[in-house]
Design brief:
ten-stranded mixed β-sheet, seven-stranded mixed β-sheet, binds iron/sulfur cluster, globular
Length: about 900
């Protein structure tokens, strides 16, 4: 299917192989430059927007990135992070060669090795682990995913239950709420066609689907849609909204249920959708068996059930005017089937019971019948292409309890943020641990616990960091293996960025450029800078070497086209693209194969619209309907949550913040120019934003006696940090904010990211206390890039995440990011950027929250978790039953 871009001016795709532009640097001279434009996709957030790499035919190098107008998700547009890919590939401090640790782990000593050495040494360690019969001691832990099934296939070929993710510090709260309704655990709002756009997010979906959603929100608004933004902080999006609703963090569910009551009271619910597609009869028979089992009685009982959620109640919980609850509620109640609603991270990952936010938000879609409609909100899997793989190894024969501990029966997904704490408790160890574009030491809460785990060679036998850039986690690796940025790697992408299904090809640009010039390339590291490689080929080669001929691994890496030979990366993508519906036919019209088409255009629209699929497919739940009533919750020991309610008193509910110095810290936002931890080497992005002050309302600043730029000490449950304040009305009184992605660091012995990292000193103060102190801020330096010597900023911010206690929600498993904090002036000798953490308190806090899950641990029929719930890499069915292990 061809895609017509709505942009008016862009290089004609017929000329991409030979495009001429005037050299902007040479102006006013008219100097012509000739480029080969190669499509790929951005790797700087999940959206995978289309990029066009401009390869200068004179130098053979990529000189800039622009949008790919033929990409149906991004339609030629990007956010600042897309074009800044050029900074990342030209970073003078990037890792160019495989490195092996020299000296003790974390000591900062490295030596360059060859890929052959890396592959041989690492494969030997994996082989030794697999030969013990263990299925849970080789682990792949992913930060930024985005290769659609590739790695799960590899792990299955190795026979390990070894997939871990970052989901439970990110989206597990939202996923749980959505999954309870219809198994699909992610929403796809059709903003462009909505009448009402309802965002519960900290800034344009908090970075995920950032630009593709942003452009569709604007389209919706230009067609008259009302934009409602629920956020305690005036984000850029909230500033553009028709209604900014600054709810108290953690109270959003109360607001949604009040609006649900308004819909019911006003009679604007969609009777047919509720009648036909909701399991109302299950609720009646379970909770009201004595009542008439009719739909009419269901509606009456529903009104009674939610009668407690008055606008006044919501206003009190949310700390907003009751008039606003009613005014905005009336807009939602009149949205009909064109209510596009979204929550991802943000409110759903902040507080105990955050998963209720998405459950209550989706309730509004269910009531208005805006599920899967034009302008409504659909399950994201309707618009996501799932590639068919050339080989599917059998599921792992075992269960990894470090990833899915038995007490977290409903978690979405792995309990990754308490991994160090479980290991410290003696629940397991790892022989080989891969961190893949993943930086938990910095990004996750309680980073000192990660440093402790990674430095203990008994807990982690070998740590391999696969990363395009240095990061705080790679400092504690045994091998650091350089992986490609967006234009240096293969991946297949498909995301539900709108109500249409597309597939895109992230391809190594210089490899395609070489191919256009008639050159054969075996491995992508031959054309990338230095010896930068990519995961796809790395995993193939590693897997081949793990198998000594007796392990049955190689049989999963055989070419589907050449009998008895190892698969190549081109064959992998050839096989996949040949099976994309409609792609080969479209390619043929241009005389191309499916793979050639994707190399040339970079993306393909599979289905232009994906509405109302439930009418053919139904819902993949036990009842086959939208589950208003969840028997699963009842069976797994949470009967009070059988239907959507607001029953959990969160850790930051105002009732739990009594003292004048007690506040709620909101860390769940980031500035739109940054990636969690991969933009510290992107000079353009860092110049725009590089510090993370504490946002504080003028009333609170006056109460505490601080003014703009002065220091505050922010004490958490396990430690404290000192930051400067930004006094602003853009934050709700009683709440202080601190953005999530700034405060990067390196020690004296570490390298990289000097645009954005402070040099710090880490000290063990004894008695379990750890301290980090900024020794030096950001400074210019001389390099091949003149800009490194022009750095004018000095303040690199403060690492706040490391002072956060882990707070695993007993139901979703998600980390509850909102922190109860105590604010004061710093004491004598406490300086800007200082961080201190008490490791004993960190374990005690983990144990307290972990116990809440243990207290409610219930396994109906011996099931570890609901059999119908998703698991990214599912072991064999028998391992879902506890007694079988
Ligand atoms: S929205 Fe995401 S994928 Fe798109 S350009 Fe920005 S960072 Fe890249």
């Amino acid at each position: 299917m061809q895609w017509i871009c709505p942009l008016r001016k862009f290089p004609d795709h017929g000329d991409w192989a030979d495009h001429m532009e005037l050299d902007a640097q040479a102006w006013p001279k008219r100097v012509e430059r000739n480029y080969s434009l190669v499509p790929t996709t951005c790797f700087n957030c999940e959206s995978a927007c289309g990029l066009l790499a401009y390869v200068d035919k004179e130098s053979g190098q990529v000189t800039k990135f622009e949008g790919n107008p033929r990409h149906p998700g991004s339609r030629g547009r990007n956010c600042a992070k897309g074009p800044a890919t050029i900074n990342q590939i030209q970073d003078t401090e990037r890792i160019l060669y495989p490195m092996r640790r020299k000296g003790k782990r974390g000591g900062g000593g490295w030596e360059r090795i060859t890929w052959d050495e890396a592959l041989d040494e690492i494969s030997a360690k994996i082989r030794a682990s697999l030969k013990t019969g263990a299925v849970d001691r080789v682990v792949y832990h992913v930060g930024r995913p985005g290769h659609e099934g590739y790695m799960n296939r590899v792990l299955k070929a190795w026979g390990v239950d070894g997939h871990n993710s970052h989901t439970n510090i990110c989206s597990s709260g939202a996923r749980t709420g959505y999954a309870l309704w219809h198994k699909h655990d992610r929403p796809s709002p059709d903003h462009a066609n909505a009448k009402v756009i309802l965002l519960t997010s900290s800034h344009l979906e908090t970075g995920h689907y950032f630009n593709p959603h942003a452009q569709r929100i604007l389209e919706g608004m230009m067609s008259g849609a009302k934009l409602i933004v629920i956020d305690p902080r005036l984000s850029n999006t909230a500033a553009m909204a028709d209604h900014w609703v600054p709810t108290w963090p953690g109270s959003e569910t109360a607001l949604f249920l009040a609006w649900a009551k308004m819909i019911l009271d006003q009679g604007t619910y969609d009777r047919d959708f509720l009648h036909d597609w909701v399991n109302w009869a299950d609720w009646l028979s379970a909770d009201h068996p004595e009542e008439p089992q009719t739909f009419e009685r269901f509606i009456e009982l529903l009104k009674q059930e939610y009668s407690e959620y008055t606008p006044e109640f919501a206003a009190e919980e949310c700390r907003i005017p009751v008039e606003q609850v009613i005014e905005v509620g009336n807009i939602v109640a009149q949205a009909g089937s064109a209510l596009s609603a979204h929550v991802w991270r943000a409110a759903a990952i902040g507080n105990l019971g955050g998963w209720q936010v998405s459950r209550a938000l989706h309730f509004l879609n269910v009531l208005t019948g805006s599920v899967g409609t034009e302008g409504g909100t659909a399950p994201n899997s309707w618009a996501k292409f799932k590639p068919e793989l050339f080989d599917e190894p059998p599921a792992p024969d075992g269960w990894n309890e470090l990833h899915f501990p038995p007490e977290y029966t409903l978690s979405h997904f792995e309990m990754s943020h308490i991994l160090p704490h479980m290991i410290k408790e003696g629940r397991g160890e790892m022989d080989v641990y891969f961190t893949r574009v993943f930086n938990p030491v910095w990004t996750f809460p309680d980073g000192f616990a990660w440093m402790e785990m990674l430095q203990n060679e008994k807990s982690v036998g070998c740590h391999i960091a696969l990363t395009p850039t240095w990061n705080e986690t790679a400092f504690f690796a045994d091998y650091v293996l350089p992986m490609g940025h967006a234009s240096e790697r293969h991946d297949i992408n498909s995301y539900a960025t709108s109500a249409g299904k597309w597939v895109a090809f992230r391809q190594p640009v210089l490899r395609e450029y070489a191919r256009r010039n008639g050159e054969e390339v075996e491995f992508t590291h031959e054309v990338n800078p230095g010896e930068v490689w990519e995961e796809d080929e790395f995993w193939n080669e590693l897997s081949w070497r793990i198998d000594d001929g007796t392990m049955g691994i190689r049989e999963h890496f055989m070419s589907p086209y050449r009998e008895g030979e190892k698969i190549t990366i081109d064959e992998y993508y050839q096989y996949t693209f040949e099976r994309v519906p409609g792609l080969s036919e479209t390619a043929q019209k241009e005389g191309l194969t499916a793979l050639e088409y994707m190399r040339k255009h970079g993306a393909f629209l599979i289905e232009p619209s994906t509405y109302s699929k439930h009418e053919k497919e139904g819902w993949p739940t036990p009842s086959g309907k939208q589950e208003f009533y969840s028997k699963t919750m009842v069976e797994f020991g949470y009967p009070e949550h059988a239907i959507p309610h607001y029953r959990i008193n969160s850790q930051v509910h105002p009732d739990n913040l009594k003292g004048d110095d007690e506040f709620c810290l909101l860390p769940t936002f980031r500035l739109p120019q940054h990636i969690h931890s991969r933009s510290a080497n992107a000079k353009w992005l860092v110049e725009i934003a590089h510090k993370n002050p504490i946002w504080i309302h003028p009333k609170d600043a006056a109460k505490l006696g601080v003014s703009e730029g002065e220091l505050l000490k922010i004490k958490t449950e396990i430690g404290w940090f000192v930051d400067k304040v930004w006094v602003t009305e853009s934050i709700k009184p009683g709440v202080v904010g601190c953005s999530h992605h700034i405060g990067r660091w390196r020690r004296k012995q570490d390298s990289g990211n000097r645009f954005m990292t402070n040099e710090v000193k880490i000290e063990d103060m004894g008695a379990g206390k750890m301290r980090m102190r900024t020794v030096r801020g950001i400074e210019p330096w001389k390099s091949d890039d003149g800009d490194t010597n022009r750095i004018w900023w000095r303040d690199g911010g403060v690492h706040q995440n490391i002072t956060h206690a882990v707070q695993p929600d007993p139901i979703s498993g998600g980390h509850c990011w909102l922190q109860k904090v105590w604010l004061s002036r710093p004491g004598e000798g406490e300086l800007y950027g200082d961080v201190e953490v008490d490791m004993e308190k960190s374990m005690a806090h983990y144990r307290k929250w972990n116990q809440w899950a243990k207290d409610r641990e219930t396994h109906p029929r011996g099931e570890r978790r609901p059999l119908w719930f998703k698991r990214p890499l599912a072991p064999r069915p028998e391992h879902f039953i506890l007694s079988q292990d």
